[in-house]
Design a protein that fits this description.
Length: 137
């Protein structure tokens, strides 16, 4: 049975492994992550960074073998705050997921500057095709 809850210190090793397997990095504090658990396994995670005008989803990850089961949607529904736009830089293959949730294409100016710079200078940019997107209620 799938369970959503906040990450705890003892989850760090499994959380880092899930992120690494999906080309993402880990950032403290661990308590900022919402986890999707299936038994003892962490099968998904999401975290938001709060800025004055927006929140940024960074990252949202679902283990490949658990995709297309609604886990990403459940995580987004749990972590997105009401009343504040959310932004994300979607990787090429995930754009359709975020579009189906209600995100729309946005300009790079909507993305916090450090994230926009990270994407602009990333050596994998051509491969991942980053797309800024925004979600407004």
């Amino acid at each position: 049975m799938l369970q959503l809850d906040k990450a705890r210190a003892e989850d760090r090793r499994k959380l880092e492994a899930l992120l690494w397997e999906n080309g993402m990095g880990y950032a403290d504090p661990i308590e900022d992550f919402m986890l999707a658990r299936q038994g003892d396994d962490i099968v998904g995670c999401g975290r938001i960074e709060d800025y004055p005008d927006v929140v940024m989803v960074r990252p949202l990850v679902v283990a490949e073998s658990f995709r297309r089961r609604g886990i990403g949607r459940l995580l987004l529904e749990r972590i997105l705050p009401a009343g504040k736009p959310a932004v994300i830089v979607a990787r090429g293959e995930s754009v359709s997921f975020y579009s189906a949730f209600g995100f729309t294409f946005a300009d790079w100016q909507t993305i916090p500057i450090h994230q926009a710079h990270e994407c602009t200078t990333c050596p994998d940019r051509a491969e991942c095709c980053p797309q800024p997107m925004v979600y407004s209620l």
